[in-house]
Amino acid sequence: MTETPHDADEEERTTVSIRRAPKLSAFIVVGALLGLIATLVVTSLFPADPEIGFAATFGYFTLFGVPIGAVLGALIALWLDRRSTRRSAQVVAGKLDVRVDEEPSPVPDGAALEDRNQDGPVPGSGPDDHKQDEG
After folding, report:
1. What residue ranges of the chain have pLDDT lower than 70?
2. In the chain, what are the domain boundaries?
3. pTM of this prediction?
């Protein structure tokens, strides 16, 4: 059974800040992917050198595009994080102590299942038990 929590006088109260903060890792990954796509678009706009090939040129410029995109994503995330700090709300939170006393079960868990399985099906649980008799 659950006991009632302490009186309101004994409750711990704290002022906390609530805000919506962006996930930095998600912004970095999305920025890197956008950098990869931008590199593909820019590389395909210009003719590739026949001696080197398109794949090698794309791979080389990917070394620049992906980190630049990741840095831009991180900067956007930091800007949004700063903005969310200004919009944060101060609220008072209380911590209650709740105690749960577990009552011992008179029958072990496994024994109750074994007894029920030995008796056969439970009346009213079969598909035919829900049909009404006509006649």
Report:
1. 1-10, 104-135
2. 23-95
3. 0.56
